[in-house]
Structures are given as structure tokens and as C-alpha cells.
Specification:
Layout lengths: L9 E7 L6 H9 L6 E7 L6 H6 L6 E5 L7 H10 L5 E6 L3 E2 L3 H16 L5 E10 L5 E3 L2 H4 L9 H6 L9 E3 H4 L12 H12 L1 E13 L14 H9 L1 H21 L6 H12 L5 H11 L6 H10 L1
Parallel strand pairs: 1-2, 1-4, 2-3, 6-9
Antiparallel strand pairs: 4-8, 5-9, 6-7, 6-8
């Protein structure tokens, strides 16, 4: 029985763009997972290098290549296009420059099944994991992204996630009930993983695998990447890029307003007030923003980040 005939409970979504240098290592690490019941959907965003040719060399029924013929749109649009075309039990996301640990799917799915046993299969669920941070040659920089970036992965309540995302997209698995809550691409979202985290914490549950399941490669072209939050020069450097950081906050406020509008008929009254309060900070002066931040406890998880937030907003 070949891969197309078997029931494949897990679908992995991979967005590529000029990913020739690293994507082969990522795909190999997926194809040789300890858990083999999956399909891999790759959507290329109009690469101009050898990415597509490299993808077409794979002779595996589990891998399907899709092409974006509408022009370059970016990783977020690419992932949402993949997600909205998916109707599967479990969906995972992969970044083309990473490498998966051999048991990533197995560990994540086990955590998902444990959550389903506890909360029911109809509950919208998201599972994420830690990562090992590496350089471009996969030499370990840190054995834990949570430690490296001083992220507290348990800070997943709605008011906490609005102010700071702790979920890394390339580690995520969601179930069908959560997917069904995402009916269209939001008009304003910072990234797909952040949006999915907001959906999960509002209507379902978020699970965590503490073990690092991804080698998170850092190189010159990372779209987001990781920085050492224990290095004070990183925090100070953000203050010198105040205009850039202010734009990020404007995007975060817009995301909160969009989330409130999208789910206004489903959110509980308290949740709706919290989302609207964060979104409305875009239209308030500094004093009003500070008052809102304190009232709703829109705090980040380190002193340096909170000080920086006060200086920037």
C-alpha cells in the first residue's frame, strides 16, 4: 500500500522561497521521522534559484509540490494559503532552513493525544515545543530557545500572548477543531503562529513539549530568527531602533483589533474587552497606553522587555 492510499493523520505544511541551500536537509529530516504516517505539502512562492528543481527530485508519494502563480506574497501569506486549503486531523508547520529531530512528529502527536484525552477531541488544541539554536552549519549555540531568548513558554493566557508571542511556528501542531476556527486569512496578523496561539488560548488549550524538537538554524537571511536575550546589548540596541520597534507595536495593536473583530461573536465578554483594549492603544497617547497596560497586565516576561516596552509605547 503506497503513501497516497494510507490514511495520513498528519499533514506538514512547508513554505519555500529561494530555499535551495537548506530545504533539502529539512525535507530529509522529515522523511526519515520515527512516525511515518504523514504527508508533506510544499508551496513555493516563486523561487528564482534551484528550489523547485531540488524539490522535484524527490520521489516520495508523501510529498506534494504546489506553486504560487500570483506573485511573491511572503511566508505568512504562503502559510495561510496552505492552511486554508487543508482539511486534515493534525497540521504541522515547517521552516525551510531548519532540521527536525527524528522523533519530532511522534513526540508532538503524543502530546496532542494526551491533551485530547484530557479535554476531548472536539477541543481546539495547539502543541508547540522548544528548539535548539544553531549556527548556519548546525553547530549548537544554545540547547534551548526558551533559555536563549528568556521566553517563558507557559505564558499563554490571552493578555500575555497579545503582548508577547512565545510560540515558534516551526514547532507547532494544531488539530482539526482549531483549524476550523480559521476560516480566512486575517487582514492583520503579525505571523501565522501568533494568530493560531491567540485562537488556541481563546477557545481551546495549548500544550508544550519541553524537549527541543528542531534545530533552529540562524543565518544571514532568517525572516525572524533568535537573539540572545541575556545579552543586554540586544535590548539596548532595540532602543536605538525605536521607530522600527514602534511599528512592531502598531502591528501588534492592529492584530488585536482584527482578532476582536474576527471572533467578536464567539469570544467571552472579558476576552473581547481585553482584545479591544490592547488594539485601542494604537489610538491613545503614551499616558493612556501606560494606564491600559497596567490595568490589563499586558506585561512581557522579563524586566528588560517591560522597561523597553514602557520606553517604546
Amino acid at each position: 500500500m503506497n503513501g497516497k492510499e494510507r490514511n495520513m493523520p498528519v499533514t506538514i505544511l512547508l513554505a519555500t522561497y529561494n530555499s535551495e541551500e537548506y530545504a533539502g536537509q529539512l525535507i530529509d529530516s522529515i522523511l526519515f521521522q520515527t512516525m511515518q504516517d504523514f504527508k508533506l505539502l510544499v508551496r513555493d512562492d516563486g523561487s528564482t534559484d534551484g528550489t523547485v528543481k531540488m524539490l522535484e527530485q524527490y520521489d516520495d508519494d508523501r510529498l506534494t509540490i504546489l506553486h504560487n502563480d500570483t506573485g511573491l506574497r511572503g511566508a505568512q501569506d504562503n502559510f495561510f494559503s496552505l492552511l486554508l486549503g487543508c482539511d486534515d486531523d493534525y497540521i504541522m508547520f515547517a521552516d525551510a532552513d531548519d532540521v527536525w529531530m527524528p522523533d519530532k512528529i511522534e513526540r508532538t502527536l503524543n502530546c496532542m493525544h494526551a491533551l485530547e484525552k484530557r479535554h476531548g477531541q472536539s477541543c481546539p488544541l495547539l502543541v508547540h515545543t522548544d528548539l535548539r539554536v544553531t549556527d548556519r552549519d548546525l553547530r549548537i549555540i544554545s540547547n534551548s530557545l526558551f533559555h536563549y531568548q528568556r521566553i517563558s513558554p507557559r505564558r499563554t493566557r490571552l493578555h500575555q500572548l497579545l503582548a508577547q508571542n512565545v510560540i515558534t511556528g516551526c514547532t507547532v501542531m494544531i488539530n482539526r477543531p482549531l483549524r476550523e476556527l480559521v476560516r480566512s486569512q486575517p487582514a492583520n496578523s503579525v505571523m501565522h503562529d501568533w494568530w493560531l496561539g491567540l485562537v488556541a488560548t481563546s477557545f481551546g488549550r495549548i500544550g508544550l513539549v519541553r524537549n527541543p524538537c528542531v534545530l533552529y538554524r540562524q543565518h544571514d537571511n532568517n525572516q525572524i530568527g533568535a537573539s540572545n536575550a541575556r545579552d543586554w546589548s540586544v535590548s539596548v540596541g532595540k532602543l536605538y531602533r525605536k521607530q522600527e520597534m514602534s511599528r512592531i507595536y502598531i502591528d501588534m495593536f492592529a492584530q488585536a483589533s482584527c482578532f476582536a473583530e474576527t471572533y467578536r461573536d464567539s469570544l467571552r465578554p472579558r476576552q473581547l474587552r481585553v482584545c479591544r483594549a490592547y488594539g485601542l492603544m494604537a489610538h491613545k497617547n503614551k499616558g493612556q497606553r501606560l494606564s491600559t497596560l497596567l490595568r490589563y497586565r499586558f506585561y512581557k516576561n522579563t524586566l528588560a522587555r517591560n522597561v523597553g516596552q514602557l520606553l517604546i509605547i
